[in-house]
Amino acid sequence: MKQKPVLHTVLSPRLLDIYDITNSVVVIIDVFRATSTIATALYNGAARVIPVDSVEQCIQIGKNTGGITAGERDGKIIPGLSYGNSPAEYPRSFIEGKTLVLTTTNGTRLLHMALNNGAAEVVTGSFPNLSAVCDHLVSQDKNVILGCSAWKDRFNLEDTLFAGAVIDEVKDHFTIHCDSSLMASNMYGLHKKDMFSFIRNTTHWHRLASYGLESDLEYCVTKDVANTLPFYKNGDLVVETV
Amino acid sequence: MKQKPVLHTVLSPRLLDIYDITNSVVVIIDVFRATSTIATALYNGAARVIPVDSVEQCIQIGKNTGGITAGERDGKIIPGLSYGNSPAEYPRSFIEGKTLVLTTTNGTRLLHMALNNGAAEVVTGSFPNLSAVCDHLVSQDKNVILGCSAWKDRFNLEDTLFAGAVIDEVKDHFTIHCDSSLMASNMYGLHKKDMFSFIRNTTHWHRLASYGLESDLEYCVTKDVANTLPFYKNGDLVVETV
Q: ipTM above 0.90?
């Protein structure tokens, strides 16, 4: 019988190098809010999203590409940039056909780590594009790393719950023997029916809700409302057209 | 109103330095099996347990102290040492009054990291001494780090479940705002009634059960069967007599 590919969940960027990720599809997960916003912008027709990890780079690449520069610190648009990190800022009427240059910290750092460690392929995932991610993973028949971006390297629950949601959908297609995945799957099973109330207990919710971002956060844990697959290619995240 | 001390759960030694552990009590958790065996040996009257991280050091300290040298690799006693890592090897009739020099990898490494990072106090915990650990934490009124030893830095469930069991007991006495603790608490709540069956799903169970250690492992997730507090003092783990 053909061996199934292996799936692992990595709970923090600090733990990524423990795993052999070569020949693997790495799913970058940053539910609050980078990978939710990326899916939304591309779903709404953005030509591409360029993820960058510094404000200077964001401004420079914005100039070079004519793209929209975006990034927040402490819930406010970073001085020198034009827009924020909210998925609600990127409806089709605004973003269609445009380049979005997005500054994020946790998600972008993990993405670059995955590339540097030899990932075969990098995609991004969050609840708004859950099904697109799962369909892709099943179709590829490659090993998978579900990479949680965490928060300043600290374990977080929203990324873990998304990992659990993916596992819930794809588990029949993979060999899964890792305690992180078992835990993520258990946590998702425990909370899939009370996600909107449970998620209010997480530290990241408290941090962001204090900036008045509740409706953003609820969107970020809503399934399949921006169901497209952001695929990393030569510095850009674009819609996968394989 | 007096501020409660803060409790955090650290899921892997790799994540320890993210937290400020000065002025904190650090609980070293290595359920399968180091901290279960340490509690058992001291409960049964061992004079002290000296945790060491190399075989050479174990042999040397064994010679210097006249202590019993112990350690396993792949379920077998390491050549040059005299006993293994099983709590069942250390009944009162054998260990009373003696020094046990115990080689472990994950737990000892985390213990030394905690000391190097300035922990105010280091104790060890596992299900066999759950109540002793909890009573001590509540009595100290200091910040607490529940430090999971993990397995080669990988997240593991047995240490996480013990952290959850501690939180279950002490939560009214601490400020707990960390996703790791919330997750550990949820996982323990989910499995406290089916611990013996659930624990069979963990990767570490599979690894050790293949060496025929099932009854050892069941003992290691049994509460309060060796209810004493191993306390680190000048290189030794001794019974806390504060």
A: yes
